[in-house]
Every structure is written in C-alpha cells, then in structure tokens.
Amino acid sequence: MEDFEAAKNRAAELRQLIEDADVAYYVKDSPTLSDYDYDELVVALKELESSFPELRTPNSPTQKVGGSLSRLFTPVRHVSAMMSLDNVFSFEELDDWFLRVKRGVSQLDSLDQAKLDFVIEPKIDGLAISLVYESGVLVRAATRGDGRTGEDVTANVETISAIPKRLESGVIDLLEVRGEVYMPIAAFKALNEHQQIQGKPVFANPRNSAAGSLRQKDPKVTASRSLSFWSYQLGEVRGGRDFTTHLQTLEYLADLGFPVNPSIVLSASETDIKERINDLNERRHDLDYEIDGAVVKINDLSLRERLGSTSRAPRWAIAYKFPPEEQITLLEDIMVSIGKSGKATPFGILKPVLVGGSTVSLATLHNEDQVILKDVRPLDYVIVRKAGDVIPEIVGPVLARRPTNSQPWTFPKTCPMCGGVLVRRENESDYFCIDYFCSGQIVQRISHFASREAMDIEGLGEQRVSQLVSNRLVTSPSDLYRLQAEDLLRLDKFADISARKLIDAIEGSKSRPLYRVLVGLAIRHVGATAAIKIASKVKSLSELLVVESADLSEIEGLGEIISNSVVKFVRDPITRGIVESLVEVGIGEAGLQEGPGESFDLTLSGLSFVVTGTLSSFTREQAERAITLRGGKVTSAPSTKTNYLVVGENPGASKLTKAERLGVRIIDENEFLETLERGDGDKVG
C-alpha cells in the first residue's frame, strides 16, 4: 500500500512537471526542459503507469498528444486528429518496435508478408502544421495543438513561400497536407546576427525561432523570418484518387508543388534501416535544417489502417531520437581563462551533463559582449549545445528558472592568473592581459610549443607544463632544453623512468623542421601552411631574426598581413629574445627538411585532404605531415571544401559515405603516392 501511495504521488508530480513543460514549449516557445529531460519524465511516468495500471487515466500526458493552445489565436478543430509519435532511443528499443509490428501483422488475416516495408524520413525539428485546401485554395493552416484542436495561423502561413497558396493541378474538393514548418539554419544565423546588431537577445535554436516566428500576431514579422516547409503526410482527402502506399502519397504531394524531403527512402531490411538512421545522424550537420532523429513508417496504407493507433500515437510509425545536442543544466560559475596571446575568454563551469554524445562540464561564452547579450548569470539554468566536434557553447538562460536574487555577471578588471590589468582595446571584443610574463600566458604558450602540431613533445601536456611553470623551472620554450632529469625528480609524480622519458622527448624535438618551430612560436596569423611557406624562404631561426618584409613578400600567397606580423614578432624586444634563446640551444636550424636531404615544394598548396583507414606506407600522422609539408591542408572529416579523401584499409564508413555524397574525389594509397611524387593532384587517375 505504501508503494502504491508513493507511486501515486510521484505520478502526480511527473504529470505536473510534464504539463508545465508543455505550456513552456508549445505556448511560450521558451522551454524549461531539454528534449532529453522531457523524454525522461515521460518514460518515468510510463513505467509507473505500467507497474500500477490504475494510475493510468485518459488525461495522463502518456495518453494525450503533447501540446497546448495559446490564447493569441483562434482555436480550430482538425479534420482528423494530429497524433504524436512514440519515441525510441536505441536500436534495442527499435528492435522491440519491429517485434510489436510483426506481432500485430501476424494477427491480421490474409496478409502478404512481402508488403511489410518501411519508409525512413528525417525527423525535422520544427513545428507541425496542418494545411487544408478547398477546391485547390489554401483556406486554413493550423498548429497541432492538443491533437484535436489547433491554432489558426493561416495569415502567417500564407507568408511562407515554400507553401503553395493555390494548387495549379490535381484540384479536388478537399485536401489536407501535413508537414513541418522550420527555420533554415542560414536564416537562423542571419536572424541572430540581426538581433545582435539591434542589441537584442539571440534565439536559442531554429526550432524555437520557427515556432515563435509562426505564432506572431503580425504576419509581417513572420514574413521577415524566412521560414520554410517540408510536407510529410497526406491527411484527409475528399474527391481525389486512391493510394496504396505512403511513397505514392509523397510523390503526389511533390507533383502538386509541395516540398518533399529528398532524404526519404524505402527499405524492407531492418539492418538497412539502422544503417540509414546512422547515415542521417552522421550527416545531420551538413543539412541546412535541424533534425533530431529519424522516423520509420510502414509504407502500406491499408496495413497502417488495420494496425491502428493508441490514444496518442500510431502503431505503424516510430521516431528514433538521436543523442541530444542541447541540454539544460546548472551554470555553477563563470570564470575567465587566459590564452597564449593574453586573450581573456569567459567560460562557464557547468553541472556535468551528457550532450552531443559526451559529458560536458565546461562551455565557452566567447567574450564580454556575448555574456551581456545572452544575459547568462551564475546559478542560472542554461541551454548548452554541442554539435559534432564543435566546442560546447552556452546558448542562453532558462529565464523561468532564474533565482530571484540573481545579479548580472561583470567581466573582471584584473587577470585571474597574475593580477595584472585586463585591457579591452578599441574596436575589439576581447580583453587581454598585457603582461607577457603572466603565468597563464606562459603555460599556454609553452603548451602550444610542445603540442602535436608544433614540436610534438610527448608527455608535455598542459598539466605538466603548469607544474614546470609553477615551480619556476620554465618561463620560456628554450628553458625546456635546459632541463635535467634531476630537476624533474624534485617534483611530484616524477620517477626515474618518467623523468628520463620526458628529457629524451624534449631532446628528440631538437631535430624538428623549422616550420614546426614557427608554428610553435604562435606568431599571429601564422599557421602550418604559412609556416611551411616561410620556412621555404627563411632556412633557419637565425635567418628569421634578420628577415625583412620585402623578403617575405616574395613568397607566393603569404600576404602583407602575415609578413608584417612576422617582422613585428622578431623586432619586438621580448619576442625577439624568445627566438634568440631558442637559437642558443640549437632549435630551428634544420630548415624545412623532415629527414636528411628531404625538402619539398608547395605542390599541394590550396588542396584539402582527409585521410581514413590504414595505409601500408605511412602512419596516419606521417601521411598528414606529407600533405602539410607540400602546402596541403588536412581536416578530420569531408566537407564541401575537401578535394581528396585518401582511403586505406578498413576506412571509416561514415567518411566514405559523406565523401561520395559530396562528390569528393576518392583516391587509394597508390594514387596518393603518385600525388605526393608528382605534386599535381589534378592529374591523378
């Protein structure tokens, strides 16, 4: 009895939380919970109601279509109910759904099992809409609302160019089309840029922006927001032709002029369906609209009708939700980090949360202007976003959950590392610590010098560098080459073997080519490509000390900005001293060579490569270095800017698929070797 009472109280609590979240999401377009947290509440309520069926009521959120109605718009009854979709979050749960479908199908009489195929569609993260046409003319557009009754947003929908207002062909008595209104990512970025220029808060994501834009009282505002539309379902039809499959209805909608998503595919194989779901997840960031999952639907319409629906969702469709890329969590504090150039960057310390497939506890806030514009404060609940490999970012606060005693955060006036003054230069958005010998800057500069893209000193990460700096063993890169094993043995976490290993790694880096030293010096505007070009002209650090702008301007593609930056670096007394001290310990005298007698022309300049799989002639790092030494660029994943995908044994399927889809030229190891030898990729093949 006590268990039942506890379950009853918890169920009531969950229902209230879900209903409050529905109002915030559907009515106010300002969610207080992430999709992931909302789904967790619904799952918890379903489990309670499954364990205690007497708690299940017709008004439970598990039995109703999610959504609430705003009082800003006239309510309108749907021609037929607009249902929600049940969700799954793993392939195991998807397998369970396949089993339920097969079980339901096996109970139907005279069914041809070959008819059981499925349509896979991207799950657009937008706002569901019902469009009703009478005699070919759009007469009503309504939001889903509570599934039975929606909001009349016809005047606003008429401003969306992707939605036909009058059908030129196939005119019938009544036609209902369902789909998703969304805001393209390009339009979302432009909207936020406009908001920033106007000094107004930016929008959290395209979905909320689309919903808020569509539900404006003034259609002119909606018209200015560049909304678009994907149709995905044929609703009520009166006086039209008959269809037997879902794909036929989509083809019909396309013929009438409705946008139908090109990623929709047909499959009868459960394995293939999972592969297509994975493919959608892999390329979701290449799309100009946001998706948060994939929808799997039975294709046969008569079978759909016979399988029917629950009170809130069809049995013949399921939504596979991707891992969340946005979460809501507590912002415990805002602090400032100091970079190698002295730039002071605010960042948030978060209550750890799983987002974008990894646990996030830190997120960038970029600069003072962004903190003010977003108005995020310590102890706010904030929306955190991490898409793919992008650095986690705090999008904005959840104002409904802000503490009553909250105060705006102000940028510190002094450096948190050295106590020096932080300066914001005119016409710049960043603050800088102007003390070159600030310990924070020293740690970052030396960490960068030792990093893989520069001197590649194994075992010398930021924590180890911080230990050396705090014990005053190192203040400049050249100090690394004066370290002795005895110096390290006096520090914590160093033993004979680890001390000797680090000293050997530092000593081994002395033979690194000049371009790596130039990268390690962190000269402004000088990355790997520019460093290689400079090293082809200036053969040593000694020569760099006497270089003139005229010398560098002769280098093709270097440019005046980079040339002036290099000269300024070697003329400044402090940074010149850094270079001179490296020359004293024998660094940077190896020219461009990677090995004895090897030097390369910049024959791959302007070309971008991705390497995947195992190569027999190179390690991955050696292959990438071979490209970089010849002026090429290496990235981690194919994009529209990629020229070549180098494919070895057991390549990454997602990279290969993406490269094929983008039209990137795919070459094997032999073709890659020819490219390196000849230096003219366009002639390969």
Description:
It is a single chain. The chain is α+β, with helices and mostly antiparallel strands. The chain has five domains: 2-63, Orthogonal Bundle (Helix Hairpins); 87-321, 2-Layer Sandwich (D-amino Acid Aminotransferase, Chain A, domain 1); 332-431, Nucleic acid-binding proteins (OB fold (Dihydrolipoamide Acetyltransferase, E2P), Beta Barrel); 439-584, 5' to 3' exonuclease, C-terminal subdomain (DNA polymerase, domain 1, Orthogonal Bundle), CATH 1.10.150.20; 608-683, 3-Layer(aba) Sandwich (Rossmann fold), CATH 3.40.50.10190. It has 24 helices and 22 strands. The protein is elongated, with a radius of gyration of 30 Å. The N and C termini lie far apart (77 Å).
Helix and strand composition category: alpha+beta
The level of helicity is 25-40%
The CATH C-level class name of the largest domain: Alpha Beta
Number of domains: 5
Quaternary assembly:
single chain
Rg calculated over all Cα atoms: 30 Å
Number of helices: 24
CATH architecture of the largest domain: 2-Layer Sandwich
Coarse morphology:
elongated
Beta percentage is 15-25%
Mean pLDDT: 85
CATH superfamily of the largest domain: DNA ligase/mRNA capping enzyme
Unreliable stretches, pLDDT < 50, 5 or more residues? 592-598, 681-685
Largest sheet descriptor: 7 strands, antiparallel
